[in-house]
Design a protein that fits this description.
Layout: H1 23-36, H2 62-70, E1 79-82, E2 94-97, H3 99-103, E3 111-114, E4 117-120, H4 121-128, H5 132-140, H6 145-150
């Protein structure tokens, strides 16, 4: 087979600049491999779940069609992002996104519903000004979503302050004793 991308023909897109594939081509190619190639390591998460690529992007001139629908990569490291995580790769459900947006749109994320809104745990933590770990631990320990999101975070007192009163001075080290029972000065 001359073309291994499981498209309907080799195509001649004319986007090779200096003999190299553009980054958009690599995204397009990877998308097709994940959805259509059972030997692909990530197939079980895409094609195995029933996610497909639209026919327009699988034609012999599929890459130019993909580029016309999605547009060029807007910045370096941008990747293809499905707006509906369970939807197919098709125009209207695919946009360019940064890695942070990609990580927030995975099946492994925990969604929290509060006050009529549903967001990912990380987004809630950012919105209320709390560390992600604090919010995660509160939920892990059995707090309700409402309590975990609305209760303020208590500030910790510095070590040692809780043992002595606020008006007492900090004691210094104990004086060292010499061999004859008298206090020695210095080392």
């Amino acid at each position: 087979m001359a073309y291994t991308k499981r498209t309907k023909g080799p195509g001649k897109h004319g986007h090779l600049g200096g003999g190299r594939c553009p980054p958009e081509y690599q995204c397009w190619s990877g998308m097709i491999q994940r959805c259509l190639n059972p030997r692909c390591r990530e197939f079980k998460y895409y094609g195995g779940r029933g996610i497909t690529v639209c026919d327009r992007w699988l034609e012999a001139q599929g890459f130019p069609n993909f580029l016309a629908d999605v547009g060029p990569q807007p910045f370096q490291r941008a990747s293809i992002h499905r707006v509906d995580n369970d939807g197919d790769y098709e125009p209207g459900n695919v946009v360019w996104a940064d890695p942070q947006t990609q990580l927030r749109n995975t099946r492994a994320n925990r969604l929290l519903a509060h006050a009529g809104r549903t967001m990912v745990l990380v987004a809630w933590a950012e919105e209320i000004g709390m560390k992600r770990v604090t919010l995660s631990q509160r939920l892990f320990k059995g707090w309700s979503v409402e309590d975990a999101l609305t209760r303020p975070v208590l500030t910790r007192t510095p070590r040692g302050e809780c043992r002595r009163g606020p008006d007492r001075k900090k004691r210094g080290p104990k004086p060292r004793r010499g061999t004859n029972g008298k206090t020695r000065r210095g080392p």
